[in-house]
Amino acid sequence: MADILECIDLSSADVRSAPIPERAVGLMEWVAAAEALGRDTVELMGLWASRRGVHMALRRPGTGRLGLLTYPTDSSFPSVGRHHAAAQRPERAIRDIYGFVAEGAPDLRPWLDHGRLGVHHPPGTATPVMEMPAYDFLPAEGESLHQVPVGPIHAGIIEPGHFRFTAQGETVVRLEERLGYAHKGIGSLLRGAPIARGTMLAGRTSGDSTVAYAWAFSQAVEAAHGMTVPDRALWLRGLMAELERLANHLGDIGAICNDAAFAMMHAHCGVLRERVLRAADAVFGHRLMQDMIRPGGVARDLRADGAALVSDLLGDIRARFGALVRLYDNSPSLLDRTVGTGRLSPDLAARFAAGGFVGRASGRAFDARRGLPYGPYDRLAFDVPCRSDGDVNARIWIRIEEVRQSLALVEQILDSLPAGPVFADLPEGGSGAMGLGLVEGFRGDILAWIEIGPEGTIAEGYLRDPSWFQWPLLEAAIEGNIIADFPLCNKSFNCSYSGHDL
């Protein structure tokens, strides 16, 4: 067959500037794309379904080329997961929600459906469920093995997820995750909703990334309509996104150290995180900046003294953060827990197209702000930190360096913030047009896809969290470590349950 990139018609243009062309493919082209994923010729950016069939977003590594394939079906499709492991859980979710079976898939167990939805395949073909059998965890064989079940309810304020450890003594031989407990039907809620309602839902997919999700969804809507957003709005979106990144990275650095019983870092980083949230509340009217981004621009301009307040915040963080970094780097008892723990190989990170600090700590330097640039990042100077050691320590250091980069980015945004309007009305019409959004959240790249329906409603929508490609890698990273180090590894990944479970 000819070059697979020609077959799947990857676009060389920025897909966020115009409706994305959909290529409906047959069996041979779909399988060829799956095989290309298995050879690492292309990267999987998303795999999902709608009532028309199964969709796959692909990216050519090292380029800005992105494309969308659709395999029309109302029952089954050739498995991508048999060639590419990262597609296996999305295929299982597709079967749970739409009933489309991945033929030849290595794993046909349910994923998001725990037998509590009340129906099978809700979109238009709902049938009452029969009692679901107990979930069949994968077996492990060997001498002196025992299992340790953890969750789904955890000690402390944390989302639900089940972790089944198989261990030999203290050493983890296998970890298998069972997720889906936070499934809330985002796709079904989006279907038929007005754009404003869809934006609100997108911003609540994973609350710690409300800015990034609302931005990705807005990008998709704007691309479907082929509209241009006011320049000042783009810069304000960038400011919000970097404040969100700062708050989450500061919180994560402290929380990881706390899981190694180093409470001082947790306390001081918590103070800095709180100051970021208070600054966001002061300048945008909400601590998490929820509902501040909407298709067409932003809902609120920076208040008159906002730039000065944010500048004061930058000075405060810079004055305190350096000392915290030195404290971390000069505490041997802490480094003993983080260095070499939970190592993720660069090969696995690349194969799963792991984004964010998980991927960049293991040699995959992709950042949507740089790799597939969008405004205002196409006019800002910043580095994408990258390491190859792939352990807990590396994931902390990526966060540390990204805090420093975000401080510099916020400063550039404040210095260059253009005047002008912050919102433009969406054009009317657009029924049948599709748009794709891709935004770098603090965890990694968030993908949004939308199809415009009649009267400007949402015909179909999908939101992909970076955690879809990070959760499986946590299972690999914990193998060979002791069970007591799982909280440390888990927090260093900090995957989203809610964003994954949809």
Total beta strands: 16
Question: Kindly, what is the distance between the CA atoms of the first and last residues, rounded to a whole number of angstroms?
Answer: 37 Å
Side-by-side strand order of the widest sheet: 1-4-3-2
CATH architecture of the largest domain: Orthogonal Bundle
Helix coverage percent of residues?
40-55%
User: What's the CATH topology name of the largest domain?
Assistant: Cytochrome-c3 Hydrogenase, chain B
* Overall mean pLDDT: 92
Q: What is the CATH class of the largest domain? A: Mainly Alpha
Whole-number radius of gyration?
Answer: 22 Å
Main sheet characteristics = 4 strands, mixed
User: What would you call the structural class?
Assistant: alpha+beta
How many helices? The count is: 18
Please indicate the percent range of residues in DSSP E strands (runs of 2 or more): 15-25%
Oligomer: single chain
Describe this structure in words.
- The chain has 502 residues and is of the alpha+beta class.
- The chain has helices at residues 4-7, 27-38, 88-98, 122-125, 186-190, 195-202, 210-225, 231-258, 263-284, 306-329, 332-338, 346-351, 356-360, 368-371, 392-416, 471-478, 486-493, 497-501; strands spanning 22-24, 43-50, 53-59, 66-72, 76-78, 101-103, 119-120, 127-128, 145-150, 162-168, 171-178, 293-294, 297-298, 434-440, 445-452, 458-464.
- The chain starts with a helix and ends with a helix.
- It has 18 helices and 16 strands.
